[in-house]
Amino acid sequence: MKNKNMAVPAALASMICVQGGASLAKRLFPTLGAIGTSTLRIGLSAIILFLINRPNLFSFTKKQWLYCFIYGLGIAAMNLIFYLAIQKIPLGLGVTIEFVGPLFLALVLSRKLLDILWAMLACAGILLIVPWGSGTIDTLGLFLAFLAGAFWALYIVMGGKVSKVMDSKDAVSTGMLIAAAFIIPFAIWDGQLTKITPLLFAQGLGVAILSSALPFSLDMVALKRLPAKTFSILTSLQPAFAALSGLIFLQERLTGFQWLSIACVVMASIGTTVFSRKH
């Protein structure tokens, strides 16, 4: 029971780490760009997790390798595309739009009417936060945030599957290695990593720890003990954490109407979590 009760705190701690790391990462964009920063994050995270967990790669079955491959692809695409998105739009807005992926997944997996009502409330919040027709938000940034959300849903599904067929530490370590292998060619093409200095490397290491090494490990703890549906809607707290992080660290201010829309998403998350625990 004690291990089961750690699932929700682990998911919340993961979100705090991710959004704090995203704020730090965005400070690196002017020098390294979104691709360079994402590669530094994924690459260093892969090295850290591999050295700590030391997975025995030669002991994996074909099924385990397949799941790790798809899981790693989801990690690489989710992170790279999301960084490209928040390079163009505010962090809080980007995370809220990205949440359409987990939200859609939650709707697909819902079996009770109340689950659908909570998900629809979160959907209303997402629709309200987008400044439709204002012309002040980069359209490509919005599209990239939606696309990142699709890979976020893939990450949730495969994280749940891979954690059932192998040790969670081995899964997340191997997934990060595969993600690094996917993203490195983009960094070579981009060429921004040649601008790395010792200070930028240290900042990138902080991003790697906060945004990947810690949260992906914490996610595995949560995904192993929570249904994908519950985890999906629980992560709707991400927009609130992102908006606060953007405000505190990046001075990115949202309107009162946009904060209200984030509140809708958070209320949906709380309602779903309470209902899931109750039943």
TrEMBL record:
Its main location: membrane. The keyword Membrane applies. It comes from the Bacteria. SUPFAM superfamilies: Multidrug resistance efflux transporter EmrE. It is a multi-pass membrane protein. This is EamA family transporter. One of its GO terms (cellular component) is membrane. Keywords: Membrane, Transmembrane, Transmembrane helix. It comes from Sphingobacterium zhuxiongii. InterPro entries: AA-Vitamin_Transporters, EamA_dom, EmrE-like. The keyword tRNA processing does not apply. It is found in: Membrane. The chain crosses the membrane at residues 35-53, 65-85, 91-109, 116-134, 140-158, 170-188, 200-218, 230-250, 256-275. Belongs to the EamA transporter family. Residues 140-272 form the EamA domain.
